[in-house]
């Protein structure tokens, strides 16, 4: 049987849309859950957060939806404050306003405050929780060849290309044999 892959696109607060779809899908799958039918889950941006919640933290879809809404309200509530507050023209988009927005993206590598983002993620996933990496064979929930989870990451201000952070090569013996998976995307 071919593996089943769940790809979750990003889009900030629009992450609620795939979660609603997954809730409907689970209704039709009962008594199975989404965890029972997916072999690889991979996501970008908010889709990556959803993939981590569902498959690294093993939240059910309803809990993931609630936690995502909380995260979205914390992270995407307001954009980073402008470094040029006097150049902001309220009420409509100006060319100067768009230029300052792009400059901020390059300067900070994000639209949103990374400190707010970090605090929200630590609150949702735990401060010391390892989302990727080898698990101990005797640890609770250990699955030798379980679900694979990946998140695609990149940097706006650096030409690093995109790369996949995942639990694909998690055992100690496979780390030396295969190394880490990096994918350059165009």
UniProtKB/TrEMBL annotation:
Keywords: Lipid metabolism
Annotated ranges, domain PNPLA: 6-152
GO MF, any single term: calcium-independent phospholipase A2 activity
One GO-annotated biological process of the protein: glycerolipid metabolic process
Gene3D superfamilies: Cytosolic phospholipase A2 catalytic domain
Name recorded for this polypeptide: PNPLA domain-containing protein
Lineage summary: Eukaryota, Fungi, Dikarya, Ascomycota, Pezizomycotina
Claim: Lipid metabolism is one of the keywords in the record: yes
Pfam families in the cross-refs: Patatin
GO cellular component: membrane
Signal sequence bounds: none
InterPro entries, sorted: Acyl_Trfase/lysoPLipase, PNPLA_dom
Species of the source: Penicillium brasilianum
